[in-house]
Amino acid sequence: MSFGHTHDDASAQGEMDLGQIAGALSRRRRIVIGATLSAFLGALVFVNVVKPRYTAEARVLLENQESYLTRADKERDPAAAPDAEAVQSQIQMLTSRDLARRVLKSLDLQGNAEFDPLADGMGLGAKIGVMLGLARDPTKLAPEERMLEAYFDKLLVLSPTKTRVLQIEFSARDPDLAARAANAIAAFYIDIQREAKRENARDAAQSLSPLLADLRERLAKAEAKVEAFRSRSGLFSGANNVSIATQQLGDLSNQLSISRTAQADAEAKAKLVRDMLRQNRVGEIPDVANNEMIRRIGEQRVSLRAQLALESRTLLPGHPRIKELQAQLADLEADWRRAAERTARTLENEARIASARVENLTSAMEEQKRVAGVAGADEVQLRELERAARVLKDQLEADSAKYQEALAREGPKSSPADARVIQRAVAPPTPSFPKKVPITAFATIAAFVLTTGSIVAMELLSGRARVAGPSPLAAPPEEEALEAPPQVRLAAERRELAFAELEEEPRTTAIAASSDRRTPELEDRSARAPHSSVVGRIDAARMAALSVKVLMVGCADAEHSFESAVTLSRSLARRGLAILVAADAEAEGELYDRLVPDVDRARPLGLADLTSGAATFAEAIHRDLDSRLHVMPGGRAAAEYDQEAEPVLEALAQTYDFIVFVTRDYDRAMFLAPSFDIVLVSGGEGAAEAIIDELARAGVSDAFLLEEEASAGASAA
Description:
Distance between the termini: 3 Å
Radius of gyration: 64 Å
Helix content: 55-70%
Number of strands: 11
CATH superfamily of the domain at 478-716: P-loop containing nucleotide triphosphate hydrolases
Shape: elongated
Number of helices: 26
Largest sheet: 7 strands, mixed
C-alpha cells in the first residue's frame, strides 16, 4: 500500500470553495437585500426625523502679548512661546467650571429646553433618581450648576497638531446660539487671563508694601549707625570721599617730596658756586650772572678797562692815572667776588632751610601715619556699616521699582493676555449633525457587510465551504489500478468513499447515508458501526478544547489498526497541527521506510527514549515525508513508559491540535484511556465490543468501534 498522498494533494486540502460560498450567498440573497434595504430606510428616516445640531467654531492663538512698552524691564526679552504642556493646560482652563458658569450666565440659557433640565419640568425618571439618592435634586441647584452637564456635552476644545491654536467648537440646535457661545467662551477666556495677571500684580503690590516699610526703617537705622560711628571715631570724609586723616597724609607726602626737591636743588647750586669761585669763573655762574649788582659791576669793569686801554696808549704804566685806573679795576674785581660769595652763602642757607623743612615734614608725616594707622580699624568697621546700609538701600530701590510696576500693572490695559482671538465664530449655515449622505451610506454598507460576513462565517464553520480534496488513501493512477488485484481496488474504493463522506457530513452517520457506489458488504458493516462520525466527533471535541487526544486501540484480530491510524492522522493534519504517537514497535514497518530511508534501517528515536531521558522532543518527533503529519515512534529503549506517557501527552497538547496515540497493548490502553478525549477500538466486533464494555466500566464513555474495511488490501496497494 502507498503510505500517503503526494505533496500536491496536501497543498490542496483545507482551501475555501468560492463556488460554495457564492451559492450560499445566492440562496440567501433575499436576507442580504432585505437587511441592506431595511438599514437604508432606517437611516433615511433617522436623518430626517432627528433634530439638526449646528456647530460654531472660534479660534484662539496662544502667544505672548508683552511688548517693549508694557514690559517693566526694557532689556529683558519677552517670554518664550508656550510648549505642548502649556497648550494642554490652556485647554483645561477653557473647559473649567468657573469659565462655564460665566458663559452660561452671560448667555442667559435658563429655560432653554436644550440646556436647562427644568425647562419642561422634572421627568418621572429624574424624580425616581432623586428619591433613590442616585442624582441631585436640580431644583436645589443654581441655574448655571444644573446646566453644566449639557454645556460640557456640547463643548469641544482641541488643538491641531504642532500648533498653538485652540479650536473652540460649540454645538446647539440654534446656529446663532452656537456662534454666540463660542465667542463668549473665547472672550471670557481672555478676560480670565487678564484678571489673573491683574490679580498677580495686586498680590505683588500688597506683599511688597510692608516689605518696603520695613526696609525703609532698617535703612534709616543703618545710616544713623554710620553717622554716629563716624562722629565718634572722627572719620570724616574730605574731597573725593576720602577720610581727612588719609587726605592729610597725602598732603604731607606731597609737601615732603617738594621740600626734598628744593633742598637738593639748593645744595647743588651752592656747591656749583663754590667750585666756580675756586676756579675764578664767577662770571659763568648763572645766579651770579643774573644778579643786578653783578651786572653793574661788570659794566663798570668793562668801562674801566676801556679807559685803561685808552690811557695806556699815551701814558706809561707808572703814571698816576694808570695806577688809579688799575686800583679802581681791582676794587671792582673784589666787589664782584664778594657778590659771588654772598650768592653762594645765600644758596647754602636756602639748602639748610630746605633740609630743616624736610626734617619737620618727615616728623609730621610719621605722626600722621601713626594717626592713620590707629584710624584703620575704625575705618574697617565704618565700611562694614556703610556696606550694610548700601545693601539695604539697593534692595529698597529694587523693591520700590517692583512696587511701582505692580501698581502700574493693576490697570486693565496694562496687563495684556497671552492669547488673542484670530477667528470669531459665525452662525453655521449647515448642520453638523446629522450628515445625511454619510450616515445613510455607512448604515447601508455596514448592514450589507455584516449580513454577507455572517453568511460566509456560517458556511465556513459548517465545513461546507471547504474543499475536500483527494482522499488520504486515494486510488492509484489508472495504469496502476488496472494492474492491482480486484480485492485491492475494492478496498481502496471503499476506504476513499467512507472517509470522503465522513469529511463532507461530519455530524451525520456518513456510512448509513452514503451514495450508491458502496457495496452490500459495506452497507451491512456500516449498519453495525455506530462510529461512522469519527471526524465529526473529533471536530466537535476540537470546538470545546484547545487540543483533542485520540486513543486508537487495536484488538488481537485487528491486522491493520496502524494503517487506519495513519489515515485518520493525515486527515486531521489537514485541519490543524497533528501528531501520531506509534507506541508498538511491531506496527512500525512502513513507518521506518518513510522516516529512515538509509540502508542501515536503524530504528528512530521515539516515545520510550523521550520518557527515559535518552532523547529530547526534537529528536523523538519526526516528519511524515508525504504530509504535514508529525510522527513519534515507540523508540529504541526497552523501558516501560506507561507511567511517564501522561506528562508527555500534556506537553504535546500545548503544541498540537490533534494527538493520535495508537497501541495494541490491552493493559497500556486500559491505563491510558482516561487521559484521552476519544477512544477508537478497531478489530473484530466481539473483541472490540468487549474492550468498549471494559472501558465503560472503567469510566470511559466516549469509546466506540472503528471498522477496518479491507485493510489488508489497502496496505498492499
